[in-house]
Amino acid sequence: MKYQSQKVAYWYILAALALFGIQVAGGLLAGWVYVSPNFLSELLPFNVIRMIHTNALIVWLLLGFFAAAYFLVPEEAEREIWSPKLAYLQLVILLVGTLGAVGSYLVGIHGGREFLEQPLWVKFGILVAALIFLLNVSMTVLSGKRTAITNVLLMGLWLLSLLWVFAFINPDNLSLDKMYWWFVVHLWVEATWELVMAAILAFLLLKLTGVDREVVEKWLYVIVATALFSGILGTGHHFYWIGLPGYWQWVGSIFSTFEVIPFFLMMSFAFVMVWKGRKTHPNKAALLWSLGSSTVAFFGAGVWGFLHTLHGVNFYSHGTQITAAHGHLAFYGAYVALNLAVFSYAMPMLRQREPYNQVLNMASFWLMTGGMAFMTFVLTFAGTIQTHMQRVVGDYYMDVQDSLSVFYLMRFGAGAAVVIGALLFIYSMLVVRRKEVITPGPANPVPGE
Ligand code: HEM
Ligand code: HEM
Ligand SMILES: [Fe+2]
Questions:
Q1: How far apart are the C-alpha atoms of 374 and 229, rounded to whole Å?
Q2: Domain residue limits at 199
Q3: What pLDDT, in 10s, does the model give residues 249-261?
Q4: CA 100/CA 308 separation, integer angstroms
Q5: Cytochrome oxidase subunit I profile domain spans which residues (predicted)?
Q6: Which of 115, 125, 208, 243 has its CA 20 to 30 A from that of 409?
Q7: Is the CB of 336 under 6 A from ligand 1?
Q8: Is there an atom of ligand 2 within 6 Å of 114 CB?
Q9: pLDDT at residue 387 is higher than 80
Q10: CA of residue 412 relative to chain centroid, distance
Q11: For residue 322, what are the CA distances in angstroms to 23, 270, 296, 379?
Q12: How many domains are contained in the chain?
């Protein structure tokens, strides 16, 4: 850690980790309701648990992006953050908004639009926090050194904040309502967040592999170009059945197929950098999460996304467990694992705990990634059977659900592994242990001497 103000990132990471814990615990609870449908149905209905699960996910991922920005921008720009005070104010606004949203969900107040259920004042608070953030990082970058990494990061963060404005537009016409809704939901994860991901991945690989900056930048530009080229019109894969013109079936199918490319490139980027890199950085855990993130993102977003993106397939699979399988692996690989890579890289420095013992952290990677992979497989099986019974044969929804119960039980098991992995990760971050360094001497002779 070179700059004092990077410490801001520490508090963002702590807040993110707390919400991460709540998010996966909420998921496990929702998974149990699938096994035992009346569980807590009076006290904490499924829709409320689900809102807490998905909203906590989005908010902690954003907190993680802010942490990453506050950590890497000073190093890239070679100066302190423009105003650490504003950064803390931004965090307080976000935390008050989060508590406000959770509180209102618990008493049953919400906007009803999936992922955008927050009460209006919370949405407004998020907007204000985003503006404070943009001002702060933009001033830092403008008055310091500009690099391709900060340019791409800022472009992603500016665009995603602007898209948030569509969260306020909620027309009565259901087709238009859905269209604007996807402007936020899809153009976040399949366009602007991808830019953020590429920039953060580039920063981590630069530090962890010691490869030349020019090489990293070339990859970054190609990834950004392919992500925007495919991702914007790729939104069409959500316009098939919501009452928009029929040509979207072809535009969506074709452009969303191209969306596989940037994810493939990000995976290749990570492995090629490790292969070409001249440095072996001691933080192996951060490298494991970086490689894992880009690989699982390729499978979760790229492969599992392509699985149901062609309109002829989506006609049958739309809104089944196939969608849930894809949603889980894509979010986990691309954004959860990436954030955990940043935390693994930054935390030991922020707490001055180097050299750092990474055993627990790496164990949590395998437990969580294994759990998510297993959950994806069982949901894909469930979704395939569901698609056939419900959409091809025409059985009733609830009858089909009854015959899927064994998969929901296995999903719960997989989810439990993920939760244990997440707790292990959080523990390894809160209690960062130093690696024991054995210095050769009379008590520890070098072997062979
Ligand atoms: C970091 C890991 C996780 C991520 C990124 C994640 C992400 C998501 C997302 C994006 C959704 C909305 C899916 C959609 O609309 O298709 C969702 C719903 C859900 N998640 Fe998770 N989740 C995670 C962990 C878990 C765990 C551990 C469980 C436990 C079993 C779980 C169970 C559920 C359930 C039951 C739903 C509701 C599905 C429905 O409405 O049918 N999730 N999750
Ligand atoms: C990291 C990137 C991605 C994330 C986080 C993600 C996440 C999600 C989530 C949560 C949903 C469910 C939305 C809902 O109905 O509530 C969804 C739907 C969908 N995604 Fe993705 N996705 C990503 C990338 C992709 C890519 C690259 C493709 C195509 C190649 C794709 C194709 C689809 C399709 C076709 C649907 C609609 C499914 C349906 O009709 O029910 N996604 N995605
Ligand atoms: Fe999409």
A1: 32
A2: 4-430
A3: 999 999 999 999 9
A4: 36
A5: 8-449
A6: 115
A7: yes
A8: yes
A9: yes
A10: 21
A11: 21, 28, 17, 6
A12: 1
